[in-house]
Amino acid sequence: INLTERGTLTTRNATRIRSEVRGRRRIEWMVEEGSQVKEGDLIVELEKTEVQRRIDQLENELIAEETSLYSARNDLKIQEDRNKTNLEKAQLSLEVAQVELEKLKQGDIPRRERELNLAIEKAQSNLERSEGLFKDMPTMLEKGFVTSDQFEQERIKLKEFREGLVTANQNQALYEAYEMPLSLKQKESSVSQAARALEMESRAAEKAIANIALRVSQYERRVGESQEELEREKSNLSKMSVYSTASGVVFYGNPDRPWDRDEVRVGGDTYFNHVLLTIPDPSELAVLIKIHEA
């Protein structure tokens, strides 16, 4: 008895060519079904335009992000140098203010006090000498030993020496009450201001560095993410040209899922892990046939 029926060719051992590209992709070209292929032959091309466009976009974005990263790192180095210079200036200003305060305490004040004391001593000595000379002046004037002009000159000198002593004492009192405390306050204030300026400069330096370091970190993260995405897209692009991993006759789709066969065609869509082609082992081929009882 001879029967003619439709059947399905199958095999227990076959090489299944799957899509390794993530997402849905359009099939642009396929080797003709039934063709004999060798291992390494190009057998499927997926549509690459969208992926290539994305790669071009990512490469441009990566260049821009790497440029921004380079600029941020350069800004960080410049800020570090600027901070170092500003902090050194602020530190020097503080040290100068401290030295000037110490100089005032250890040098200027003691020297000025000695000068004022010496001025008092000189004024006191001059007054005592003048008083001694003038004490006999009235008698000498009466006896004609000195003239009226000489008498008047000595009297004026005596008055000047008395005023000189008063002035010397006043100078010392003013210095101790006003000038010395004011000078100390000014120098101490300069030290305090310089210390505050150093602290403010230090905080400003830390803030500036932190802000730029944050920018560097953000650009480093963006560059890393862009590089990873670019590598993924390039990997996808390389997988869009599908090469045979075995030699034999090509059949479309998966024989175990014949209902999917119509999806495997030029212009159709495929997705990750979808069986595109099957290359059966010719030594283990079989035909499945359903025979109607009628």
- Helix count? 3
- Cα-based radius of gyration, to the nearest Å: 53 Å
Quote the average pLDDT: 91
Q: Write down the oligomeric state.
A: single chain
Order of helices and strands: EEEEEHHHEEEEEE
Largest sheet: 4 strands, antiparallel
- Going by helix content, strand content and strand pairing, the class is alpha+beta
Give a count of the beta strands, DSSP E runs of length 2 or more: 11
**N-end to C-end Cα span:** 14 Å
Shape: rod-shaped
- What is the topology, as strand order, of the major beta sheet? 6-5-3-9
**Beta-strand residue percentage:** 5-15%
**Poorly predicted runs of 5 or more residues:** none
User: In which range does the helix fraction lie?
Assistant: 55-70%
Summarize the structure.
This protein is an alpha+beta fold. It has helices at residues 49-134, 137-142, 148-239; strands at residues 7-11, 14-18, 25-30, 36-37, 42-46, 241-243, 248-249, 251-252, 269-270, 275-280, 285-289.
Describe the structure in your own words.
α1 packs antiparallel against α3 (148-239). Strands 6-5-3-9 form a four-stranded antiparallel sheet. A three-stranded antiparallel sheet has the order 2-10-8, with no helix packed on it. The protein has a two-stranded antiparallel ribbon with strand order 1-11. It is an alpha+beta fold and 294 residues long. The radius of gyration is 53 Å and the shape is rod-shaped. The mean pLDDT is 91. It has three helices and eleven strands, in the order βββββαααββββββ. It has helices at 49-134, 137-142, 148-239, and strands at 7-11, 14-18, 25-30, 36-37, 42-46, 241-243, 248-249, 251-252, 269-270, 275-280, 285-289.
